[in-house]
Structures are given as C-alpha cells and as structure tokens.
Amino acid sequence: MAMIELRDLEKFYENRAGRTYVLRQLNLDIEEGEFVTFMGPSGAGKSTILGILGMLDGEFGGEFNFVGQQVQKLKPKHRVQLNRDYIGFVFQAYHLLDDLTVYENLDIPLSYRNVRGSERASLVADALDRFNIVAKKDLYPSQLSGGQQQLVAVARAVIASPKLILADEPTGNLHSEQGQEIMELFKKLNGEGTTIVQVTHSHENAKYSDRVVELKDGWVVGERKTAEAA
C-alpha cells in the first residue's frame, strides 16, 4: 500500500458564476520513501495539493488515503493528530510564531509529540547547530532576515524526524549556496527513508526528486522520472 493514495481528488470554490475548480480528477500514488515534485504555473493547484496532503484543508472531493486511513472521513481533530504524528511542513510564508524565539519555534513540534524535556533540548541544540543558527536562538522572527526565517522554518519541519516532509518553495528566499544545502539535506533525509513532496518553480530543485508531476489548471498534464531516479 502506498503512503498516499489520491483518487479523483477535486477541489473547487463556489462563486456567483458557479464553481471554480482548483484541482480536477487527480489520481496519484506516492510510495513511502519517494521524493515527488509538483511543478506548474501559478494557479495550477500545487499549493492546494500540499494543503490537502498536510491535513490543513479538509474540504475536497474524492478520496485521500494516508497510511491506510481515509482522510476524507476523519474528524478534524484526527486530521490534526495525523499531521502532528507524521508530517513536517515547510511553508512558503514561513508561518513561524512571532511571539516565540527561534529556540521556542523549534521546540514546538517536539512538544506536540510528547518528547521528553532533556531530549527536546538536545534535538533543538542539534538543529541550531546543523542550520548554523545558534547565534539566532534567542531572537524573534521579526528580527531575522527572510533567508534566516526560511532556515528556521526548514529546521522546524525536520526536527522531529517526520515520516513525510511537505515543502512549498523550500529555497525561495535563500541564496543559491544555502538553497543547495537545503536540497542536499532533503536528499539525505530521503535516502534515510523520509518521504518528501515539494512544490517548486525551480528545475534545479526538481532534479533532486525521483518524479516530477506537472500541473496546469488543476489537471495533471504530465509526469516524468528524473535523471536522479533513472
């Protein structure tokens, strides 16, 4: 059984003119340990898919099976629990908590998973070191540059060793060297068994994945394996 199974997945918004579809009849399986990239123009539905896969959006049609559970039938609190147990999310807009320090932002996902205090401190220290942000640990997001906030957001997503990482333009605000380091980290985590789904406009970032799914106007219009997977 695949980690993710999508069957006739659809998403639309009602307006005066009728229905505006964002996703249409999407059928896709993502295996555990796979690295999949969604690409396509703005408005193609890429971020919408991530929101559904991340259990942030429960309003959709069709079927979404995740680790054997029928997500469309789950109550919101159960979707939230699945998210906390399995998923690390890198948002394009960071979504750091403004009133918490860098250290506290990194600690939050660990507190959700009931990790012991001493282990949490060790994991946060490791993440600060790995992402070279030790000097920023007592600062608040508003005191960081966009690139630094992006690094903290990535660190927060991976700190609890999630089974699935969802990344929306994960290197969008990083200079090329930092961006490459993040993609190399994702590739390493993927090699260790973490499933990764990213949305990107970057063909360079897409090369790190096993498979690229092309979207246009909510439809899957193409799919290809990358040279990396060949």
Key structural traits:
single chain, Rossmann fold, 10 strands, 4-stranded antiparallel beta sheet, globular, 6-stranded mixed beta sheet, alpha/beta
Walkthrough of the structure:
The chain has 230 residues and is an alpha/beta fold. It has one domain (4-225): P-loop containing nucleotide triphosphate hydrolases (Rossmann fold), CATH 3.40.50. Helix content is 33%, strand content 28%. The protein contains seven helices and ten strands. It has helices spanning 46-53, 76-86, 102-112, 117-130, 146-158, 176-191, 203-206; strands at 4-15, 18-30, 35-39, 61-66, 69-70, 87-90, 164-168, 195-199, 211-216, 219-225. The protein is globular.
Number of DSSP helical runs: 7
How can the largest sheet be summarized?
6 strands, mixed
Oligomer: single chain
Order of helices and strands: EEEHEEHEHHHEHEHEE
Radius of gyration: 18 Å
Overall outline: globular
**Helix content, binned percent:** 25-40%
What is the name of the CATH class?
A: Alpha Beta
Estimate the mean pLDDT confidence.
91
The CATH H-level superfamily is P-loop containing nucleotide triphosphate hydrolases
Termini Cα gap: 23 Å
Tally of distinct domains? 1
Q: CATH fold name, please? A: Rossmann fold
Class inferred from helices and paired strands: alpha/beta
